[in-house]
Amino acid sequence: MADPDGKTVIFFPEGAFGPTNNCIGIAEVLRSRGHRPIFVIEESFAGTLEEKGFEERLMRLTPPAEAEEEPGQFWKDFIRDTGPVFRRPTIEQLEGFIQPTWQALVDGAKYVDDRLAEIFEDVCPDVIVEDNVVGFRAVVAAECPWMRIVSCNPLEVKDPELPPPFSGLPTDDRSASEEYREEYRRTTEELQAGFSEFCVERGAPPLPAGEMIHESDWLNLYLYPNEVDYTRSAPLGSTWHNLESSVRSTDDEWKMPDEFAARDGAMIYVSLGSLGSGDVPLMKSIVAALAETPHRYVVSKGPQHAEYELADNMVGEEFLPQVSILPQVDLVITHGGNNTTTESLHYGKPMVVLPIFWDQHDNAQRIDETGFGVRLPTYSFGDGDLPGAIDRLLDDGGLGGRLSDVAERLQENAGNERAAELIERLATTAEPVTNG
User: Fold this and answer.
1) What is the biggest distance separating any 2 CA atoms in the chain, rounded to whole angstroms?
2) 371-413: pLDDT as tens digits
3) Cα separation, 37 vs 54, whole angstroms
4) What is the pLDDT of residues 36-72, one digit of tens each?
5) How far, in Å, CA of 33 to CA of 35, rounded?
6) Which letter, b or e, does each residue of 277-288 get, where b requires 16 or more Cβ atoms within 10 Å of its Cβ?
7) How many CB atoms lie within 10 A of CB 15?
8) What is the pTM (predicted TM-score) of this model?
9) Which of 104, 202, 235, 418 is least buried, going by the fewest C-beta atoms within 10 A?
């Protein structure tokens, strides 16, 4: 029987595994407290949340395809068309990737606006939780409180004294920051202004200058452990809270194959996300670089899993339950997605980061400059660079101690439980939840 005091909370994550998994971790806590979480997801995700016991409401961000695509065809086409851009410096990616990506996201927000309003009117939620990089007019104009989660690197919430988002620039050298900011303005300001006008025409406030998403008046969350978080020139507003990490418990169990477990060598997890693992030449180069090392590797093979073979010192599958694997390994090789970055710190694992796009460059730089891992050039690392970085990190006893301390602290303060408490407070009071 449902709790008569339970609240209805809509989770609206970006159509990607990172934000969706983050929301799942929070939603499962709310559900255990007697509340009713409902997920608004793209049709391509249909059934994935129902399998975990959550209600779903479906929507589309683009018109239906005229013809059914072959499985994995989207990633084949994306890598073919966009892959060359990722080999350029981040400032050159602004026009070739960042601006077109913002354009697609804004187009999707406009296309789905009526459908979102229809869902919100039908469900009548007590709170809407938006975990996205682009704003949605229907969320801001809904007749209930809404809140924002930043599942990306916190540079997304800009500060003039910190590196600009997506740049991968260091915090101790601002010499290239203004040039990057100016190029970002040049490539996005017209799109941003038009999107802001759309919001106003449909009854929502204008977007803040230079932003593609509103800040909530009620509650804003981000997740980045204090040991790697940035020192800001001005503190964030009173409704901002740092969860530090937020780890779900719904992943399936993963048991290491007995024959693999009996072998010598460190255990290393390799996950480059759907995009990185969809780049077959990149994955083949990583497999070749690791094949002759004395270590063992658990590889998340991704959507092109049938297109390349693993070496004898590796096991892997198309999809793997990451949260179940991380406690069992000694090191992580990652693309630097925010979830993998924060989850690796949550379990005290050093990282070799091979960034590809978006905030992955920022996470790679931050992990490197704080000493919790090594950043390597994804498409141009040398023959011994990857094995050398692995051995340096594994041999660093001081780093192991630091990471153990970080993990102990994070695991004693579960971010998903704290997020659920804050959302519960907002749903109950409909008042801003301040960090005082």
Assistant:
1) 64
2) 999 999 999 999 899 999 999 999 999 999 999 999 999 999 9
3) 7
4) 999 999 888 889 899 999 999 999 988 887 766 555 4
5) 6
6) bbbbebbeebbe
7) 15
8) 0.94
9) 235
At 13, which helix (H) or strand (E)? strand 8-13
Tokens of 169: 């620039």
Could you tell me which of 377, 365, 328, 318 has the C-alpha nearest to residue 349? 328
| Helix-helix angle 17-32:338-346, to 10 degrees | 50
d(CA 150, CA 419): 12
- CA 130 vs CA 22, 62, 119, 212: distances in Å: 11, 19, 14, 13
How do residues 196-254 score in pLDDT, each as one tens digit?
A: 999 999 999 999 999 999 999 999 999 999 999 999 999 999 999 999 998 877 677 88
* Alpha-carbon separation of residue 422 from 128, 147, 351, 411 (angstroms): 13, 10, 31, 18
**Dihedral (Cα; 71, 341, 37, 128), 10-degree rounding:** -100
Residues whose CB falls within 8 Å of the CB of residue 85, separated by 6 or more in sequence, listed in order: 92, 93, 96, 97
DSSP assignment letter at 166: T
**β-sheet bridge partners, residue 240:** 220
- 8-state DSSP, 167: S
Helix (H) or strand (E) holding 156: none
Provide the pLDDT for residue 362. 98
Contacts of residue 285, Cβ cutoff 8 Å, sequence gap at least 6: none
User: Rounded to 5 degrees, what angle do the CA atoms 140, 143, 147 make?
Assistant: 45
- Which residues contact residue 126 at a Cβ distance below 8 angstroms, ignoring those fewer than 6 apart? 7, 8, 9, 144, 145, 427, 430
Q: What is the pLDDT of residue 121?
A: 96
pLDDT one-digit tens code per residue, 297-337: 999 988 778 888 999 999 998 888 898 999 999 999 999 99
Residue 78 confidence class, pLDDT cut points 50, 70, 90: low
Cα torsion angle, 74, 77, 81, 83, sign: positive
| 8 Å CB contact between 247 and 318 | no
**CA 213/CA 193 separation, integer angstroms:** 12
